[in-house]
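Lab meeting, item 3. Inverse folding demo.
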């Protein structure tokens, strides 16, 4: 099965539209959504409407912003801007979309044999997987050979290579407009496609992936979108202006 892998849209409809347009001819069977549909951006309802419209075509899990913006949790761990945005989002979400977000399962979720998705890590949906030793703890907790995760908004990959007596774990960033990777049959991977709607790796373009689990091939893309329009809508919505400004820099 080939999957469209989407994470951390954060209410950015302009970015999501550009990604869907870019992926239109890429022949994927299902969508994997790794969490954080909303929070920060000005179009939470459009993004959740799209997720709902996919029906059985999507395997979706919640992110920490979905949990807070839907009212399942407080925003006490959020910074001031994220908290303001979560309150704004909670007020704007339609009843159906609020219910959808509340019902999203917490990851990890097994999509098919050997393929698992989660938001932060396999151990904690709020954990940021930046460091190799944290990635190792997640990889040791499962037999799955490919784990797709989000939350950091940094396109990246951890590869565990079984060695003679000791395993080798390597990390790499996925940068550039298009990256194609063939995953080794005996190695195990944690892969972050990056964020559709709020890049944080100094590249403002939207990030997403196509993953072919039968061929173990990953295609990673960066897509330009009308960042200025997304920024303007955040300003006009009365959200903290910094949430729009940071989109310009991917920061
Ligand atoms: Fe996020």
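The presenter then showed the designed sequence:
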């Amino acid at each position: 099965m080939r999957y469209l892998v989407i994470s951390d849209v954060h209410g950015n409809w302009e970015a999501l539209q550009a990604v869907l347009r870019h992926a239109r001819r890429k022949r994927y069977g299902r969508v994997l959504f790794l969490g954080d549909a909303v929070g920060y951006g000005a179009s939470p309802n459009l993004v959740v409407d799209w997720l709902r419209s996919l029906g059985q075509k999507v395997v979706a899990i919640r992110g920490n912003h979905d949990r807070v913006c839907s009212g399942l949790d407080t925003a006490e761990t959020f910074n001031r801007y994220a908290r303001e945005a979560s309150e704004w989002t909670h007020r704007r979400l339609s009843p159906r979309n609020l219910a959808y977000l509340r019902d999203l399962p917490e990851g990890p979720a097994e999509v098919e044999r050997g393929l698992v998705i989660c938001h932060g890590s396999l151990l904690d949906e709020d954990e940021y997987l930046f460091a190799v030793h944290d990635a190792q703890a997640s990889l040791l907790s499962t037999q799955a050979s490919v784990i797709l995760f989000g939350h950091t908004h940094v396109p990246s990959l951890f590869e565990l290579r079984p060695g003679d007596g000791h395993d080798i774990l390597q990390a790499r960033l996925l940068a550039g407009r298009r990256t194609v990777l063939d995953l080794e049959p005996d190695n195990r991977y944690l892969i972050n496609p990056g964020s559709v709607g709020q890049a944080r790796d100094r590249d403002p373009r939207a990030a997403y992936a196509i993953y072919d689990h039968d061929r173990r091939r990953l295609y990673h893309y960066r897509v330009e979108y009308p960042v200025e329009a997304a920024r303007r809508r955040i300003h006009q919505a009365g959200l903290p202006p910094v949430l729009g400004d940071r989109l310009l820099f991917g920061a």
